[in-house]
Write a structure and sequence with these properties.
Blueprint (H helix, E strand, L loop, with lengths): L2 H10 L4 H13 L1 H19 L9 H12 L11 H24 L2 E4 L6 E4 L10 H31 L1
Antiparallel strand pairs: 1-2
Helix pairs in contact: 2-3, 5-6
Amino acid sequence: MEDNDLIWRFIDGDCDEAENKALLQRMEEDTDFKQAVEERQQLDEAFGTLELEQPSMRFTTNVMENLPVLYQQLPTLHLVGPGWVKAFWGSLTFLMLSTIGVSFLSPETYTGSADTLSRETIDITKSLFLPYKTAIILLSISITSIFLILLDKQLSRRNKKVA
């Protein structure tokens, strides 16, 4: 334990008997340590004579009135540029459309009645260099990218006409 903490615990009376005994013995042997303890005791006595400050009667009201000013809504338009917002929404749309495209365009079919569903996979992997799911994912990514580029150009033209 640090000496400073031990001295303050001694002054507050929080030390047990063994710590008190060791501290008193150290004070007899070390004059610098004894002087440090006496300085802190004088400081503690000086603080004990001071009057505690009380907040004004309107303290709570003043604080509560200033809270809305401290926690006002910050404008976020200046924090994030319009290019980043477009990129976020574009990538979100891209992910959604590619997920939908992959789920609808996968070449797996289910045949049979509801009781006995059997899964048949169309074997097109022999005709492609890539596995069929990879090809479908790349196709949906390409189509979605083209769609988003065209949509962005159309919306940019529309915004220029309005402004």
